[in-house]
Amino acid sequence: MAGGPHEDGERLLREIGFAWSKTQQHWHDDMASHFGRSHWTPLADESRAYLRALGECMELLSTAERETEY
Amino acid sequence: MTDVTDIHADIAALKEFTGALARYRHAQREVVERGDYQIAATRASLEEKASQWRSLLAQREADLAACHRAAAMDAEAGGHTDCSAQAAAVREAQQRLETIRRWQQQVEDGASAFLGPASRFRNLLEVDVPRTENHLLAVISGLEAARGVQVAQS
User: Considering the entire predicted model, what is its pTM?
Assistant: First the structure.
């Protein structure tokens, strides 16, 4: 992991999104649609919400450090 | 002739995705821990800076008080002592301490706002994702049982 935690988290989310897209190429029955709605979408949405909040929080922390560096 | 792996490509893909989800859960848990650590580190750093400036302020106030005492004695003897440099040093320490306190408050507010999404995400990783993995394993078992096969993960 090289970047800030939110950047690494976003990369992981992109990777799992890519893995899901690949899975959908082979799995596309009714169960797959149900899985997409009831499992994948909430997981992706919740991950995005967390990573957005984490990014804002990390930005605040680095500004706080910078503004108090004397 | 169609390869058996093509016929059961869905099962192989599901197995791969289940593994990817488990890796996602572990790696994002690390991200959460690093985020929490960063908040704690910034809190500690700001507190350290506040402590240093509190000490400096106390020292500078003592210097200013000493200067005022010397100025009073000088004045009795008809002299003049200028304490403006000491007064400016006190003001500078007060302002910097105030700035640090303001940022400490902003960090606390930011950390409070972050608590909700962080707690929901932790719950997702601890409860929902494992449940999703189990759901996928059940789907895989169901498909394998229905077809009377056991597909190795690619």
Answer: 0.88
